[in-house]
Amino acid sequence: MAIRQVRTFTDVWARGRRTLRRAQKVQRRREVGRSAVGRFLTAGVCVLAGLMIIASALNAKGGDLRPGRNTDLVSLVQSQSRRNTDLARQLTRLRDDVDQRTRSRDQVSGADLGLEQQASLAGLRAVAGPAVSVTLDDAPDDVTADGVDEDLLVVHQQDIQAVVNALWAGGAEAMTIQGQRVISTTGIKCVGNTVVLHGIPYAPPYVISAIGNQAQLRAALTKSPSVTIFKQYVDAYGLTYQERATARSQFPAHEGSLDLRYARTYHGDQSSTPSGLPTPR
């Protein structure tokens, strides 16, 4: 039994050695068939890599082969640095100019006073003084008039403008409408049942106030034909017209644009007045 086991092990060992020998022979034949081509390709790759390394070294000349981005950044930093330096110098010159003009302004007090007076007259400065205020309002909702257009029972642009013109004619030094300062380019525009002033719509009642000699202002309102016509509608249909004098009123400075955007001549309706009705406004 032991002899049989030894023979079996010997046979297995012999078969393994024979299999390895055959594999080695096959591998040698394959290497012999491809050795020349493989060696040639390996040498070619090595030579090509060496040429690339030599070419790169010659082109670099000790520097970076990809300096484009870095060069752009460096140039940008240098350019911005020069620009900042120029701006700093310009700022210094402007400050010196402002200081010089300030000193000159302090020395010419008379010219400065005249400028302030003109700014006040133009409505660019807040003012205070005795004032006359006029309040205009529509007729009450329960008022109806047979044969009369309902549009005539409300306050319109021309009614406000009539009061404004009368107050200017009476020597008004400053004026406000609904608390907004009136200047030479102020336009009053009627849009629906509201009045637009400096781009802001207002609903009635409308308050027009003026600083000046109160007696002269009231006299000018009394003499105004347009204001007199409005008072006829007050008596006939219940519209509101009220005058009030105050010992001291504070008017704000104008805060809007000074440009005159639109201007055109107004031509009123000259048609005849029906019998028994007030003169058309």
Sum up the structure in keywords:
single chain; 281 residues; alpha+beta; Alpha-Beta Plaits; three-stranded antiparallel β-sheet; 8 strands; elongated; disordered N terminus
Model description:
- With 281 residues, the protein is an alpha+beta fold.
- The chain has a domain at 128-251: Protein of unknown function DUF881 (Alpha-Beta Plaits).
- The chain is 53% helix and 16% strand.
- The chain is built from 6 helices and 8 strands.
- A 5-stranded antiparallel beta sheet has the order 3-2-7-1-8. It has a 3-stranded antiparallel beta sheet with strand order 4-5-6, covered by helices on one side.
- A hairpin with a 2-residue loop joins strand 2 and strand 3 (180-181).
- Helix 4 packs across helix 5 (214-223).
- The termini are far apart.
- 14% of the residues are buried.
- The model is unreliable at 1-6 (pLDDT under 50).
